[in-house]
Write a structure and sequence with these properties.
The structure is a homodimer. By secondary structure, the first copy, chain A, is of the alpha/beta class. Chain A has two domains: about 280 residues, Alpha-Beta Barrel (TIM Barrel), CATH 3.20.20; about 90 residues, no CATH class. Chain A is built from 15 helices and 16 strands. In chain A, α6 packs across α7, α9 packs parallel to α10 and α13 packs across α14. The longest helix of chain A has 28 residues. The interface between A and B is large, with 40 and 40 residues.
């Protein structure tokens, strides 16, 4: 299901293909985040226009609203949200820990109350697999325990051990469903299961976690617990350490990473998959990514700036609207403004990934990275 | 600039063309409302897709934000908002009376404080003309005094007299600018000036108002002060009375009207132009117009309804998304939901106007009206 196409001659960056039930995607890729079964502000056509090949959604969020009965009746998440291309679903573990109320974590699973209606629920690792079977996501993430930074050693040990235990139970549950439904399912139903490496900022725990997961042989490996409040150099250090132990023939995913800078740094180390709500969240706040760094459109300096967000961008927003107009819309809290900037940002991230893949295939990722980082240093923030 | 193309044989409904600086538009038409220089939630492409020929914006709103300096520097409102087709601008008098703070109205004009930043301003009728010259709107509305329902006879008299006085001063200011700029302006700068008939619900005041305006010979006539809280039958009665005195060869415009029912009723009487924020305002509340009446998508009955908003509609929202999905989006306050329902509603109104024009040209407007009203009686509200 994963094939490395080209390795950059001077770095660990690589291009590849992941074959999923709903289509093949080019790595390294970035997934826009469709938390509530929608990439915030964007239609499916907008995502097509931005050349989006795969998006990420969230089991916890979809479970609490609209609920699994609705998704089941729709025939899965793709049909519900009218998105025909691949979807990766996170377990939502991270969201339960950060968003849900009155949660209690034991080895059995996690008890919580929905942040939407306060209803009490319990998720075991097996539940999370079953729910993602109903979602029909192309790539499934197991339940894990993600800790925030900084995390005490003793709690990091507990969370790492628990994540490993849950990974075993998830794998077993996944295999059971696969063998039970053998012969009854079509290629459209084939799902991939990834393992999530935890261990906070402790290298020995990271090693324990990944060794155990690699023994279980997952379809890909996610490096979890990054971008959770730690300094950027510590994140890159843990990433560098961890990634070297992941088999070359498996896709590597850094969950929740990151900014354009972090993506470029991580691709260089050999990461294949990214996701973050940064482009849409920043977009809704009027901050736009450009080839010369971020700009905050609500700033007074744009009041009579009739140039596009980014003169090097050919997205709909840049081809049709000025900074002055978008500034006005964002200041007036007009939905069109939030949408156009979000759209531009997603387009910018997608274009960045295409540029990255092209640079790798020309064995010039190092130069690309240097140029890119130099240009965006003009960043106003 | 206005030409009647076809008069329905059995009603007063008619089709026609209005030629403006930015293009020719088919009457009867409906204008989506671009209060803050944006039809709420919709891009210019969305408006094109809905086959929108003309939109309405608002002098007061644009004046307070982003301000005339910005619009002037942009080269007018069309360029600022990237909308190349005709724009009618209301004076914003109605908004000053309903939205601005600490207003004081005298024969000289209106003193008010901006609802955005509290800044004090004064608009004379001449100012309103000058501002709309800067906006470069295709159709200009003069400052008028619109009263709410119910209105005492004595105040209605004052407001009617003042509206007539302001109309004279507006016409004079408009003609002065036209003669001063003669030979220096292109066809793209040619603007049309309408008169606004007031008189509240008093027929003799309506007659006085319209007689005075017709003497001044405006490019078109708006029947103002409708849809301001009066019962529907009273509105239709005042409209019927007033419209008969407007010259046949001038376009007639009912400002702020209305619902699909009101539009159909008014077209029958010979109205050519409509505007209201109903489609976008209802859209943002999750209420959709359909060929079988309005539906409120957030209702529980749509939770597993995977049919489109309107099976007879071929808009992007109806071709791609289900009621269940839109319900979910609206419930979760997701911007995509508010946008898709707004888009559908604007599309619905535009399609209604196309259907109306077609029915008139086939001399079957009466049957069309009967069928249309019968079908939408299924309206859930």
């Amino acid at each position: 299901m994963f094939k490395v196409i080209h390795k950059d001659k001077k770095t660990n960056a690589r291009t590849g293909l992941i074959k999923t039930a709903h289509g093949t995607v080019h790595t390294p890729f970035f997934m826009a985040v469709a938390t509530n079964a929608t990439v915030k502000t964007l239609s499916v056509q907008d995502l097509f226009d931005a050349q989006t090949e795969i998006i990420v959604s969230n089991t916890y969020h979809v479970f609490v609203r609209p609920g699994m009965e609705v998704i089941k009746k729709a025939g899965g998440l793709h049909k519900f949200m009218s998105w025909p291309r691949p979807i990766l679903t996170d377990s939502g573990g991270y969201q339960i820990f950060s968003l849900a109320l009155l949660r209690k974590v034991t080895d059995e699973g996690v008890k919580f109350q929905s942040h939407v209606d306060g209803m009490a629920h319990f998720f075991s690792p097996e539940d999370i697999i079953s729910l993602q079977k109903i979602l029909k996501s192309d790539i499934i993430m197991p339940l894990d325990e993600c800790v925030h930074y900084p995390c005490q050693r003793d709690y990091a040990e507990i969370a790492t051990r628990r994540t490993t235990l849950w990974a075993q139970r998830s794998k077993l549950a996944f295999n059971n469903i696969v063998s039970k439904t053998k012969g009854k399912t079509s290629a459209k139903d084939k799902q991939l299961l990834f393992g999530i490496i935890q261990g906070a900022t402790f290298k020995d725990l990271r090693k324990q976690s990944l060794d155990a997961l690699i023994d279980m042989d997952f379809d890909g490996y996610s490096i979890g617990g990054l971008s959770v409040g730690e300094p950027d150099n510590l994140m890159q250090d843990i990433l560098s350490y961890t990634i070297d132990f992941i088999p070359q023939d498996k896709p590597r995913y850094t969950m929740g990473v990151g900014t354009p800078e972090q993506i470029v740094e991580s691709v260089e180390k050999g990461v294949d998959m990214f996701d973050t709500c940064v482009p849409t969240r920043y977009g809704r706040n009027g901050t736009a990514f450009t080839s010369e760094g971020k700009i905050t459109l609500t700033n007074a300096r744009f009041i009579k700036d009739f140039s596009p967000i980014d003169k090097n961008c050919d997205c709909y927003a840049c081809k049709n609207y000025s900074r002055a107009y978008l500034r006005h819309l964002c200041n007036a809290k007009e939905i069109l403004g939030l949408k156009l900037v979000s759209y531009h940002n997603v387009y910018f991230f997608m274009k960045l990934m295409r540029d990255i893949r092209q640079a790798i295939e020309k064995d010039r990722f190092g130069e690309f990275k240097k140029d890119f980082l130099k240009k965006i240093k003009k960043d106003e923030n």
